[in-house]
Design a protein that fits this description.
The chain contains 16 helices and 17 strands. The chain is of the alpha+beta class.
Length: about 550
């Protein structure tokens, strides 16, 4: 198992102290590095989106050497930074398009529901008019539970109104729904236009130093000279020097000698950080520096220039390492531990090699009314318990692989309580904590598509095992991850609800994918049935 982690040095290096030798060369290198990076990004942007610029005819390396006279090692570091920014921008633009498409889909669903409600109201109005003319009450639409007796309307909740008064209420509702539909159509039109712009026009250029910081110049209350200084420092505050596994020191520009860290600057001089020591993983870092040629890994060094409120400037030096656990237990021969993640609890199940559920537990926590830091701290403690649970049983972990980004962009017209729970669901934070625990405790992690695992658990294991729906889901996640198909097949008495194609796939299929269409149809057939109803025996 591999993890990439950035570890800071154990102290700040203040520029006015004697902890750094030849710090002026490093500061000039950082300023020059960022200036060249901005120019190279603009050239890459022109080449990628506008099909113009010098990089159409020559390579970035020759262009940098010709214009700035930098070495290949610095050229590679500058290109890595600039190209990664451009790649992130492209990926972000694609994400914007997908989220906008999800937003339009949500608006279409809302328009459809509102239109159906309008048609029902119009049907009631038409039935009222027919009743006033002929005295005969006609059902406005199928499954309508409104009745008419002695010129009075009786609603399903037991209330009743005179027919004339209720007609005025219906008329107001119709006008309100028509206005609502018009507003929804207008907002949908604007969303479609934004999507077309995202597809047609290239994204805006990156403002290095921060767009908000740049926009402060338009504030008449801001001191212009102070703003220039702050904006310059924010644009030239960081530098990353990626490593190479072919280098003896795992990085051609940075090396360690005794207890000092030495950086080769652009002007040929060297900057020395005295008594350099990492806050943690110091021994691992030194082992990587002393590794054999075949086992070397690249090490990246990062430099950040910051300023205190008092005006003192200091450097934060960090090291990015590739952590690898060679003795990670990823074998499923003795079973697994599976987990179902939720916004306020995690459900865990332990399975043996045959897929039998041995035991399980639920660990609860409350993210309500807590700050971001408090939620992170609580999630870290919960995932540490999960890590110990896997380590004690010496089994790998199977979890669900989710993408909550698009789902959170489709919550515009949903239930407020459900939306709040979805917003509190910190899936990425939970996943990161579990990966850290897997590295520390030496157990593997398998991620699977969780499609219909809750439905499988609800139908198959909710009543027989007396589990909650989340515990049953964690069990089926483990079965799905281990590929035990026979324990996930639906009851034979439910096959009458399936199409012939789904039945054929169930009969002839050999993998987990072949049972998904059947569960999709069963979920649709039982839509609207509450989960607690499955604790009773199904009326076959």
């Amino acid at each position: 198992m591999q993890l990439t982690r950035t570890i800071n040095a154990d102290k700040r290096y203040y520029l006015d102290e004697d902890e750094i030798q030849n710090v002026e060369s490093l500061i000039q290198t950082m300023e020059r590095f960022n200036n060249i990076k901005i120019q190279l990004y603009n050239c890459l942007y022109d080449k990628s989106f506008l099909k113009r610029g010098p990089l159409l005819e020559e390579t970035y390396s020759s262009w940098l050497k010709r214009n700035y006279g930098t070495t290949d090692y610095y050229n590679c570091a500058i290109y890595t930074y600039a190209s990664s920014v451009l790649s992130s921008q492209k990926e972000l633009n694609r994400l914007y398009q997908r989220t906008k498409e999800k937003d339009i889909e949500t608006r279409n669903q809302k328009i459809k529901r509102t239109q159906e409600e309008l048609e029902k109201k119009q049907g009631i109005k038409s039935s009222l008019r027919t009743y006033f003319k002929s005295g005969i009450w006609e059902r406005p639409y199928p499954k309508c539970r409104i009745t008419m007796e002695r010129n009075q309307i009786f609603l399903p909740n037991g209330t009743y109104f005179p027919a004339e008064e209720y007609e005025r209420k219906i008329e107001r509702s119709i006008r309100r729904l028509k206005t609502r539909i018009a507003l929804l159509e207008s907002s949908k039109k604007r969303a479609i236009q934004r999507l077309e712009w995202l597809k047609k026009f290239p994204p805006k250029r990156i403002v290095f130093g921060g767009r908000k910081q740049y926009q402060k110049k338009d504030n008449p209350k801001v001191d212009r000279e102070q703003w220039k200084q702050e904006f310059f420092e924010s644009r030239h505050a960081s530098m990353s020097l990626p490593g190479r596994h072919t280098s003896k020191n795992c990085n051609f520009l940075v090396r360690k000698e005794e207890r000092n860290l030495i950086v080769k600057c652009m002007d040929g001089k060297e900057t020395v950080f005295k008594q350099f020591h990492l806050a943690r993983q110091q021994e691992l870092w030194e082992e990587m520096l002393q590794a054999k040629k075949q086992e070397r890994k690249a090490i990246c060094y990062n430099f950040q220039l910051k300023r205190e409120k008092t005006g003192r400037r200091y450097l934060i030096v960090s090291v990015t390492l590739l952590l690898e656990n060679k003795y990670c237990n990823e074998s499923l021969e003795k079973g697994c531990v599976s987990i179902d993640l939720n916004y306020d609890h995690v459900a865990i199940s332990e399975l043996d090699e045959k897929g039998n559920r041995l035991e399980g537990t639920v660990i609860r926590f409350s993210p309500e009314l807590k700050t971001k830091g408090q939620i992170s701290e609580k999630i870290g403690r919960v995932m540490a318990k999960v890590g110990r649970y896997c380590a004690e049983r010496k089994k790998p972990l199977i979890m669900e692989d989710l993408d909550t980004t698009l789902a959170k962009h489709g919550m515009k017209y949903g239930c407020k309580k459900k939306n709040r729970h979805a917003s509190l669901f910190a899936y990425r934070k939970m996943t990161t904590c579990l990966e850290n625990q897997a590295y520390k405790q030496s157990f593997g992690i398998y991620k699977i598509n969780p499609a219909y695992t809750s439905q499988m658990g609800k139908f198959l294991y909710l009543r027989p095992f007396g589990l909650s729906i989340h515990e049953a889901a964690s069990y089926t996640i483990g079965l799905k991850g281990m590929g035990i198909r026979e324990k996930l097949l639906p009851d034979e008495r439910l096959l009458v609800l399936l199409s012939e194609k789904a039945k054929e796939q169930l009969k002839n299929g050999t993998d987990i994918v072949s049972i998904i269409p059947a569960w999709k149809q069963l979920t649709k057939a039982f839509r609207g049935v509450s989960p607690h109803s499955f604790y009773r025996e199904l009326p076959y």
